[in-house]
Design goal:
247 residues; alpha/beta; Rossmann fold; 2 domains; two-stranded parallel sheet
Length: 247
């Protein structure tokens, strides 16, 4: 794991990943890089790890400082060591529904959905957010499960009209309580990927108003404690997959 700077939330996430690795017998090393490091310095570090046969997986903890070219850094990770599944190579496998390393969070979202709805054929899934990290890939994974998928985002007009049609609603925007009771129909399954902090109370909030919609939805993930643990579990799964690919 490569960590740039001293972002408090990132430090918490990394600590959880280290503990999870230890619990299942995966050796983990955290490489702490100064926040003033350049894009090239980060790429050089990744090059060294790419060439190290004892390293089966490489993860760059996001977000990175603004001055670093995130895409240049992520795309330099060898696809066979890309445990986050964020290289163009592995994202391309999602588009074509072929074997590859799937991004941890979207993979976890799909597993959560399947725990409630085993067969997604013909259901309408609405995605709020189109990021490469979550929104875009989870839509593709659902499409390959024969769901009908609608993408929405910050420029979508009349968002409620679309979200009310959803049998499955995945929200990943980072906008606290963007989705309320009037955004959903009864019986919807909601995956809340968003996370933000209330500036006044310090409370962690999701993109969905949990209290307002929980009685109306068939199932909904809490924030925190919902998607996060699934992301870590799939990181471990991807690490094992990468090891097998390399062996």
């Amino acid at each position: 794991m490569i960590v740039v700077g001293s972002c408090v939330p990132s430090a918490i996430y990394v600590k959880k990943k280290v503990a999870a690795c230890h619990n299942v017998g995966i050796s983990s090393t955290v490489h702490e890089i100064d926040k003033i490091a350049t894009t090239q310095e980060l790429i050089d570090k990744i090059t060294t790890l790419n060439q190290d046969d004892q390293v089966h997986g490489i993860l760059v903890q996001l977000p990175l400082p603004d001055h670093i070219n995130r895409d240049a850094v992520l795309q330099h990770i060898a696809p066979c060591k890309d445990v986050d599944g964020l290289t163009v190579y592995n994202l391309g496998h999602i588009m074509t529904d072929t074997s590859g390393i799937k991004p941890c969070t979207p993979q976890g979202c799909l597993q959560l959905i399947h725990s409630v709805i085993p067969n997604l054929k013909g259901l309408h899934a609405v995605i709020v957010g189109k990021s490469t990290l979550v929104g875009n890939p989870i839509g593709q994974l659902l499409l390959h499960q024969h769901a009908t998928v609608t993408y929405t985002h910050s420029h979508t007009k009349n968002l409620k009209h679309l979200t009310r049609q959803a049998d499955i609603l995945v929200v990943a925007t980072g906008v606290a309580h963007l989705i309320g009771e009037d955004h959903i129909k009864p019986g919807v399954v909601i995956i809340d990927v968003g996370i933000s902090r209330d500036g006044k109370t310090g409370k962690i909030l999701g993109d969905v108003d949990f209290e307002a919609v929980s009685q109306k939805a068939k199932a909904i993930t809490p924030v925190p404690g919902g998607v996060g643990p699934m992301t870590v579990a799939n990181l471990l799964l991807n690490t094992v997959k990468c090891m097998k690919i390399q062996s």
